[in-house]
Amino acid sequence: MLDDFLVRAGLAGVGLSLATGPLGAFVVWRRMAYFGDATAHAAILGVALALATDLPIGLGTLVVALAMAVTVATLAARGWAMDTTLGVLAHSALAFGLVAVSFFPTVRTNLSSYLFGDILAVSRADLALVWIGALAVAGLLAWRWQGLLTSTLNEDLAHAAGIRPERERMVLVLALAVVVAVSLKVVGALLIAAMLIIPAAAARGLARNPEAMAAMAVLIGAASALGGLMLSLWQDTPAGPSIIVVAALLFAATASLGRMRG
After folding, report:
1. 3-state DSSP assignment of residue 244
2. What does the pLDDT average to over 251-255?
3. Cβ(30)–Cβ(152) under 8 Å?
4. What is the CA radius of gyration of the chain?
5. Burial call 175-208: b when 16+ CB within 10 Å, e when fewer
6. CA distances from residue 96 to 34, 88, 92, 93 in whole angstroms, order as listed
7. What pLDDT digit, counting tens, does each position of 60-93 carry?
């Protein structure tokens, strides 16, 4: 069955949604959208690092994404103005990455696949990496769910319950870095944040509780991935952006449904 590239692409999209659904819910609740952008943009710098040191692309991406996420989390804890800081870091990391990658002529022609993803070229090894990473992130979030939820709701309440908000923040940082590393091949650096935010935002208008929102975000993300692949096959459009287009349409539909219910 896995000889069919469309099946592999569909499985990769569904697997990725297992991680982006619940993680995206926390990104939306904590208003970390730009945080996700900065980490995703750093992935291109990770590609350059991997090429320069002969490391696997996924490992180089993970190292740089984790370094960026930890840097941003540390600056946030020290009271830096996050909108400006994240803007500087996100665009600087992307620019440095693009310049660094340009020194490798063999990669230049494939640069769009790192920026927008190439889900149709997902191999069996890539598919295994996506599912292992997604299941690891989903398991981590499930394990720390109550602590993450309490610290997101109110840090003073978390302290009173014996929960360290700083530790829970680092859990999210680690999860975000892993998701960026495993999803670079699927949707690309420029679209990772959209895959995190749009399904979760679409689920927010329909869910009655946090757990339901996370579950709905997984379903909407999976539907977006499969629908985007169908759109790409039907209209011969780029697969990664097509996935985000379907996610945006689902967001518009759920927002309209939420208004009618309201």
Report:
1. helix
2. 90
3. yes
4. 18
5. bbbbbbbbbbbbbbbbbbbbbbbbbbbbbbbebe
6. 18, 12, 6, 5
7. 888 888 888 778 777 776 766 666 777 788 788 8
C-beta atoms surrounding 212 within 10 Å: 13
- The one-letter code for the residue type at 78 is R
Cα separations (Å) of 114 from 13, 23, 64, 79, 108?
Answer: 16, 22, 15, 33, 10
**Is 35 within 8 Å of 27 (Cβ atoms)?**
yes
Output DSSP code: residue 120.
G
Q: What is the pTM of this model?
A: 0.87
Are 202 and 250 contacting, i.e. CB atoms less than 8 angstroms apart?
yes
Greatest mean pLDDT among 53-62, 121-130, 156-165: 121-130
- What helix, strand, coil percent values describe the chain, rounded to 5? 85, 0, 15
Residue ranges of domains in the chain: 5-261
What topology does CATH give the domain 5-261? ABC transporter involved in vitamin B12 uptake, BtuC (1.10.3470)
